[in-house]
Amino acid sequence: MSNSLQSKDSFVEEKGAAEHREVVPAPRLAPLEEPIVIDFVAEHKLIRKIDRMLMPLLMTIYLFAFLDRSNLGNARLQGLPQDLLGGDPTGQLFAWLNAAFFFAFITLSYPGTILAKKFKQNRWMGIACIGWGVASVLQVVAFNFGGIFTCRFFVGAFEAMYAPNMALYFTLFYTRREIAKRLGIWFASFGVQHIRADGNLHPWKVLFLIEGLPSFVLGFITIWALPDRPDDSDRFTLEEKELVAKRMRRGQAPEAPRSLSWKHVRMAAIDWKIYVEGVVYFGLNVALSSLGGFLPTIIAGMGYSNATAQLLTVPPYAVGAVVLLCTVFLSDKYQNRGIPVATATAIGGTGYLILCVIDPAQLHVRYFCTFLICIGTYTTIPLTVCWFPFNMGEFFPVFQCLKNIHQTSGSESKRSCGIPIFQSLGQCGSILGSYIFPAAEGPRYIKGFALTCALFYLASISAAVLSSYFHFENKRRDRVYGKVDRLAEVDTSELADWSPNFRYTP
User: Fold this and answer.
1) Which residue from 201, 232, 279, 280 lies 20 to 30 Å from 419 (Cα-Cα)?
2) Looking at the domain that runs over 45-498, which CATH code has it been given?
3) How far is CA 80 from CA 76, 97, 288, in A?
């Protein structure tokens, strides 16, 4: 134990010094606890049970959350500017509407994620779902710019309670070797629907009504059907709770539920890695917000009718979903996030680069580029979202009903602070994306394409650099402190990811 403490002290001294200073190698760490032995047949059955319990409902919620967030682009083609914005010839009022969501999201995601630790997860997310469903439906009765701007703001406010917290929620149930597949499947539930309507209601009002009401209903279903933390849920037997705790402790350390470590909050606030990943997420969200709000308009600007433009948005999203699912399965298998993120963002950047230089008359080439952009955008977002939480120090909440489970304080608090920092940086890109495709610059959109292209290539370089850092830092820790058993528990209660026994996912 003394060797372990001495090595940790040396590691802290090394971390606090300037990086160019030579540090005397710390002594080898004391051996960790014995690897945790688990019945893998029982674990497989438990994972399937968790999947059935979580994935269908979470995918459905996210589908309608994404629709409520992105349906403004389709509403634009169905008469909303003419009805509420006086025609909006410059496109600036529509850009403000698109940005209203992200103003609220950025402002409230940080306090929302911190507060979520103090409440039951199912109730917190259920209330959020009800809230954005109501706000989305109220857009139907808006009669001017101010009314619909307010509704969009509250859609963003309630989604700020939900979206950043989802990354944390998934880590309560899935290990780092399982989470990319689940987040990828969850994220693949996005979609944009083409809605036709008859009668007195305008088509864009039907769009908001049909896509907002299910969110309202799903909120009540979430409160009833979605489990809170595994230790608080009556959906698991005592044996299953013990198995969940054991499997999550492999390479991880638990934390007291609903506790908050201000030390780890401060560590997250000054962790440069969170900000580098925020740069990656910033570029992705510039593309994501412009795709959701402007892709139908971009395709319509290629010479297609509004109805055809909405229909032609489906294939790029579908191809992006297929590539996404293939990539996240491979990422989990080989435990690497940086390479697929860097590769996919380079592909997306290439799509924007081609759009910058080709003649607008080459409609088929421009349409092909939208496939590259969707691959680059939708493949990388779930990988980025699941990459950094597990690189801030492992954790799993204490199972107080299980007396034989060792209780320490892990780094859930660092994640609860780091996730909204990461999300806020990324959603600033969403605001930028709302303004770089004004209608007056169509169909070339040189400024928007060039800027997004540059941000995608910056994201690709940042992901490659960060992945390389994680790889070489793991090698350095193996050399200085000795190799660790990936199945043994790692105590990150004091140092989080700076614990000498912790290893990053590159």
Assistant:
1) 232
2) 1.20.1250.20
3) 5, 11, 21
